[in-house]
Design goal:
This protein is of the alpha/beta class. The protein has a single domain, classed as 3-Layer(aba) Sandwich (Rossmann fold), CATH 3.40.50. The protein is 28% helix and 32% strand. It is built from 5 helices and 10 strands. Strands 4-3-7-8-9-10 form a 6-stranded mixed β-sheet, sandwiched between helices. A two-stranded antiparallel ribbon has the order 1-2. Strands 5-6 form a two-stranded antiparallel sheet. A hairpin with a 6-residue loop joins strand 9 and strand 10. Helix 2 packs across helix 3. It is globular. The termini are close together. Bound molecules: guanosine-5',3'-tetraphosphate and sodium ion (2 copies). Guanosine-5',3'-tetraphosphate binds next to strand 2, strand 7 and helix 4. Its main location: cytoplasm. Belongs to the purine/pyrimidine phosphoribosyltransferase family. Xpt subfamily. Converts the preformed base xanthine, a product of nucleic acid breakdown, to xanthosine 5'-monophosphate (XMP), so it can be reused for RNA or DNA synthesis. InterPro entries: PRTase-like, PRTase_dom, Pur/Pyrimidine_PRTase, Xanthine_PRibTrfase.
Length: 194
């Protein structure tokens, strides 16, 4: 997605050879117009997949997911990282290991919002080592819902997340793919015409 790549080049800050800071439009401050275009892009990619629900992870997955849900006309369910006071239903949970933080965190959704009749699109802001996406896949599969694919805003193609997801037979669609962050520069994997 050309607009996204331009925004990453203009406002992204390469913090190291493996971390890109995008706090001005995705991870802290949010650019609603760009999110809207991201939602339209995901909706177009998955428009024929019969999506009934979007599943994401708080907090940075929510904005692109809501915009996609708006276009597709389906609800957005976000997994929580912390136990909620009001989430008293039976929970579906998965343990997600973070390589950067070297900790394991439990993520959870209420089992009332996913059924065997659902076809789910999983969305997240970043794909790095794929552990968050794998946790979301686990939760959706516990509910017996079908998974149409994974929509990622920014994929770091030099990390192994995509490989792990494809090994599970998942369709992975990323709007921007970073080949390398060497020398403070974003090298994209391929120039997308759009
Ligand atoms: P890891 O696989 O590399 O260990 O990363 P991990 O899943 O633990 O991700 C930790 C957090 O960092 C996640 O956000 C993830 O989206 C984000 N992240 C991973 N790589 C990058 C990167 O290059 N740039 C940015 N900006 N974020 C990255 P989170 O903790 O779930 O936070 P949030 O969803 O509340 O924003
Ligand atoms: Na994040
Ligand atoms: Na995230």
């Amino acid at each position: 997605m050309k607009r996204l790549q331009e925004k990453m080049e203009q406002e992204g800050r390469v913090l190291s050879a493996h971390v890109l800071k995008v706090d001005s439009f995705l991870n802290h401050q949010i650019d609603p117009q760009l999110m809207k275009e991201i939602g339209e892009a995901f909706a177009e990619l998955f428009q024929k997949a019969g999506i009934t629900k979007i599943v994401t992870l708080e907090s940075s997955g929510i904005a692109p997911s809501v915009m996609t849900g708006l276009v597709l006309g389906v609800p957005v369910l976000f997994a929580r990282k912390r136990q909620s006071l009001t989430m008293t239903d039976d929970l579906l949970t998965a343990d997600v290991y973070s390589f950067t933080k070297e900790t394991t965190n439990r993520i959870a959704v209420s089992n009332t919002f996913l059924t065997k009749e659902d076809t789910v699109l999983i969305i997240d802001d970043f794909l790095a080592n794929g552990q968050a996406a794998l946790g979301l896949i686990d939760i959706v599969q516990q509910a017996g819902s079908a998974i149409a694919g994974i929509g990622i805003v920014i994929e770091k193609s030099f990390q192994n997340g995509r490989t792990l997801l494809e090994e599970k037979g998942m369709r992975v669609e990323s709007l921007a793919r970073i080949d390398s962050l060497q020398d403070g520069h974003i090298q994209f994997k391929e120039e997308v015409a759009k």
